[in-house]
Amino acid sequence: MYGKMKGIIFNIQRFSTKDGPGIRTTVFLKGCNVNCAWCHNPESIDGNQMLRFDSKLCISCGRCAVACPSGATEMVDGRRVYYLDKCTLCGDCVSACGADALEIVGENYTAEELYNIIIKDEDFYKESGGGVTFSGGEPLLQQEFLIEMLRLCKAVGIHTALDTALNIEWDRVEAVLPWVDLVLLDIKGMDSRKHFQNTGVSNELIHKNAVKLAYMGVPIIVRMPVVKELNDSIEELEAAADFMRAWPNLKGVEILPYHSLGVDKSLEYEALEAQKKFKAPDSDFIDKARELFTASGIKIL
Amino acid sequence: MLPEYVEKSIDQWFKKSDEATFFERIELQEEAVKKYYDKPYAVRYGKVLNYILERMTVVINEGEKIAGSVKEIIPDDEQREWAENLSCEWWDDVSEEEKQRRIMFYYSPGWIKRRNPLLFTFGHLSFDWEAIINKGLGWHAERAQGLIDSGEFADDQDKIDFLTGAVECYKAQTVLINRYADEAGKAGNDALSAVCRKIACEPAETLYEALQLIWFVVLISQKVAGCGVFCFDRMDQYLLPYFEKDIAEGRLTEEEAFGLIVEFFNKNNEILDHGDHMSQESDVVKNNLEVTYDDPNYIIIAGLLSKGVSGVNKLSHMMIRAQHELGLRNPFVVVRWHEGIDPEFWSEVCDSMRSNSTVVVYNDETMIPALLEFGIDEEDVYGYGFYGCNDPLIPKKEGGLRQLWVNLVWPFELALNGGSAFCVGAGDWVHDPSANFDMRDRLIGLMSGVYSGDTEGYKEPESMEDFIAGYKKQLRFLLLQYMEKMEEDYLKEQEYSRGRIRIEDLFLQGTIENATNWIAGGTKYHKITMQGSGLATAVDSLAAIDQAVFKEKKYSLDEIRQALRTDFADREDLRIYLDSLPKFGNDVEEVDKYATVVTNAFCDVVAEMNEKRTGLYTYMPTLSTDRDFTGMGACLAATADGRRAGEQISENQSPYMGADHSGVTALLNSVSKVPFHRITGGPLNVMLHPSTIEGDDGLAKLTALFSVFMKRGGMQLQLNVVGREELLDAQKKPEQHKNLCVRVTGYSAYFVQMGKIAQEELINRTVN
Ligand code: SF4
Ligand code: SF4
Fold it and tell me: Which domain holds residue A64?
């Protein structure tokens, strides 16, 4: 039935100003098939709902254990113990917790429900030349739901953007393109060995798809997350410029230095510490990149 | 680029001592009050003013074009003690009843104690600035003298005294301005000397003369007579002919005009002291000896001149640019937005707001219908303006502020409990039904005690409609009770004010013509602003009752009543559930619809008051809390939104603190559902992180964001673009952030000069 298909959503960000033109709503679909070392939202990688627990906020009151109907949460020696296999993700413990220590990560939405949220900001999209951006994770992993969403939005003239890493069979990419007004293409590195080290996947398929996409008539903005010492070399930049130089629909390249991605403060301490080992590229990196890309006729956004 | 003098003046202002004060005012005033004690009141007023203006030090700062400053010293202990003791002499033996007859309304005991009872005024109004510059002080004096000589009022000695006092006052101002002319001449500053000599009596003919004359009147009224919190009316309109003439006749370049405007704006900051009047606990405020020390002066620009005719002109652009470049807390520029406003100008306004300059926006499209509904005539409505903090006025046609902070959460508590309060209130207020709106409430305009409502004919509500009817009934009961007492108060005050004068009576329309001060009815309009407070708390509580009791039927009304009565003792589970229900500010229709319910209930009652009133005053509804939202929660029991007893209520038009988590578009959508076409003022503080709106692209997005809010019927916007990290850093290293200027409610403050409590409130509301 139209609009009843379900998707699993990690987050919805309204007044998003960094994911394409104008004022946008960015919808983060859960599930990813690339595993970037610097990822801020490790919970977005798994394509399923999960229960997130923040031990820093927990006051060990035991309400969660009382509320749990499935025996998945217990108090042992005054501490919360959780059995993943028994949990049905019913959310009862989340509503019982007054300390905001628990959260169900990932929410099921029907296409209609999600559309009803997106459409609320229609006036803002129109006034600013904005629209909706589907991001992730990798939104193409929920391809059917995505198509449903894109069609609903296009039907009322909302500008649509797709944020993808393209690490997926070409026909799945091609199938959504008729309803996509802009692709935000994530390029995480040109050197294939380093790409594998940094993301756990090869960039071969990504590059093949990128070249095909470049000639499909859809405008493209390339986004390059840059982390010091992982992918901030001049060689990477040169290779990227060479790679994209001829693309007819390339609107420009956005460099995203690591720090501006914003570390999620709710991460567990260990995860937060792990994040800290990543650093932003040197301050003149953007200038170098601008020079280099401009020389190849590519705009830096 | 700012003129060199202004750069220097700003720098010096930040460096000046917290203790510097205009001490000679107090000394001269005391001498004069004693000297003229036997004169009739209004005459005495004029003599005292004249005595001070004949003697106060003339200060001309090097490099300035626009002169007019006061001499500040740091008083020694003995001087300070003497000055402190004066307030005991003046006020200690004055009963509340007597205070009420004399002054009727004031902020707080701290505010009143610096004021000699003779020179009393509450400010918060707009003079007829246009008449001041177009006609001159001499004309004003002659007009008043002419009325005395005409014999029209010969049989009413009070009126003759009033006019005689007025003539004295006008002449006194001429005296001071002439003294500036003399001093400037002695110092070889012939240009300034000539300007002062001319405007001492004559009308202004150039932009320079106009600004200089306005400034002298401000200096005298504000720093000497204590009449602060000015509205300057529509400055871009009434100065335009002067500017255009100067340009046409080659007297001035546009850049020079800009320099004069910047200097004038800066003067408003220059006369402030450090500190923030809403942080009464801070030492700077407690020890201050001034009559006015941090008053925001409002300048109104842009807006419609009449239906479909925009007022945006060259000066509007220039004034926005001035605010942007100055970045000061004072003056406070109000831009009136309207459909079809010049897009370039609108973008400049948003850019200026983005830089945290003191600029706020009001919507003509909602304000005009609201003012028409609440008693303003068609011929006056396009001229509306504001004074601090965000209260509407019709400039020059009405006197000072009178208000009541209407706690919109009280009727909820009363409706839930059959008309009786839960009586958890703190404080020294008498918990006695007859104490509702007792004298202290009325004097300070706050509902700060425990209130009881209408207990008659209570029936347990069977539907949400019943419950809402109960809410309206209690709200109506409270406000009609207030009105009845207030009308008696004003009759007493009017009686007392016969033959008396306040500085503002010199420059309002109707006072001199009728030889009647505004309090006794000289002006066309008199109003009491009814500041609806705690909107989001009331809305969330009603929505929670609807959801929990009537929709989900999860809890009975009685269960909730018991839990709220006991502040959720043993019912933390219920509190957590109530807290988890959707809240105002997230664009959720089932909740937001109660914003319409509450606002309409409020406006309906206010409209009814206007029908029933017999006195001079009309009532105007706004949605505003100023910073008193903490105090207003103190006597309230727990509420159905999960708020605990005694906790603060929601601030201004904002969602409850931390309750909006769906983004700023959701916030603006929720707020714009309020029927603002019936609301006449009040602020909405919007916080944005600098990174979301940086660059040209970011400006375009911000402009679009605000345009949509206005088009959807939002009323007001004020913006803080600051990250939490910056505020925390400012707390640690205040010296590095001394000019970080933030909008608080109806005024701006330098963050590091705010009290600790106010700083924390702001930090808590700031996004990461
Ligand atoms: S309910 Fe929340 S705070 Fe209490 S033990 Fe469970 S997780 Fe911790
Ligand atoms: S989500 Fe449900 S099943 Fe899982 S731990 Fe919480 S209460 Fe138990």
Answer: 50-105
